[in-house]
Amino acid sequence: MDITLKQAITGPAPPTETTGIKPAGVVRQFVTGQIIAALISGRKSDGKYILDFGKTSFAASSKIPLRIGQEILLQVTDTSSRTTLKILPSQFTDTIIKGLPLFNAQTNLLPQLAALQKKIVESPLFSQSSKDILQLFTSSYNSATPPLPDGKTLQIIADKTGFHHERQLAAGDKTSTQASLKNALLEIASKADKNGEVSSKALQLVELIEFQQQINGRLGEQSLFFLPLVFPFLQQGYVLFDNEQSSSEDEENTTHTHSINLKLEGLGNLEIIMKLTGSHLTLSFLTEDEEKAAFLESQRNELMEHLTAIIPDSVNFVVGAEDCETKLLRRIIPQASGGVLNTQV
Asked: pLDDT tens for residues 233-263?
């Protein structure tokens, strides 16, 4: 298999070809649009670089200067005659590469919070407000039969996580700031033993929230609000809310599009698109294949009970769900087109 590396710059860049790919493990077929976070792990005697991603590696010669130890974000742009990989712009690379493990770690938020709560609940070091906010987030997780999330649950996540922590501090809104999960974790980290497990875990969770804040900072430019879904029955999940503002007289004719993006065991990727114009709602369920679309359609009545208080004008069950990570990455990095985002092989 031949591989070409191209620099992501305006105008043509000299391609570099590679032959004699020698995988270090199982070869995974590249797909056009695929995003790869790769590490330049070494250089062979013939001048070829060794690129590692996940448990797979390949050798490639390049006229583009690369540095051993450098992490780069690549996108597969062509797989016809030779595989072509484009290096995505450096201004996006650092944030995304560092953030990918955090995105995958979102599903561990509730169990980590629950473990942290058990360690601090009897300690006099920490304020009752911090203990209460951890209890608020973990109550459903600790329940033997956790309830299905509803709008109230999502509102708590949106209001209490601390997405607007710094803005509220700057505005002098101490009440909202102190009642946030981020503030509680910062207090726990500051009062616990600096070298202890409690402080370390609290800071790791703060880092996760700050990554979610970075996502919202990027998506806010597109009038979108990112809300992570960290429920234990999900492999991955988040909501993208359309925050586009319109005048009161135009609101009835303005369409707001919200999407729920999920990855579930058995169903795989599922995207629920809600288009709301005034009081008129259209729902579309996008699945990975026709069999899963047919299954969801057979559960239509139960789905309607849990999803909305508004009776939709139409409901569609179709094929076309994107991978959760890929859809989010396309929003954050304008240069990234469709495909599969692979952080593990």
From this structure: 888 899 999 987 665 566 677 888 999 999 9
Please give the Cα distance from 207 to 185 (Å, whole number): 10
Minimal CA–CA distance to 340: which of 318, 328, 323?
A: 323
Distance CA 273, CA 202 (A): 34
Q: What is the residue-wise DSSP string for 274-337?
A: EEEETTEEEEEEEESSHHHHHHHHHTHHHHHHHH-SSPPSEEEEEE-PPPHHHHHHHHH-TT--
What is the DSSP code string of 54-100? TTEEEEE--SS---TT-EEEEEEEE-SSSEEEEEPPHHHHHHHHHHH
**Which of the residue ranges 36-45, 114-123, 265-274 would you say has the lowest mean pLDDT?**
36-45
What is the set of domains in the chain, with CATH numbers?
3-88 (2.40.50), 104-219 (no CATH), 234-330 (no CATH)
Closest by Cα among 206, 163, 161, 167 to 179: 161
CB < 8 Å & 24+ apart, contacts of 183-191? 183/130, 183/133, 184/129, 184/130, 184/133, 184/134, 185/209, 187/126, 187/127, 187/130, 188/116, 188/120, 188/126, 188/130, 191/125, 191/126
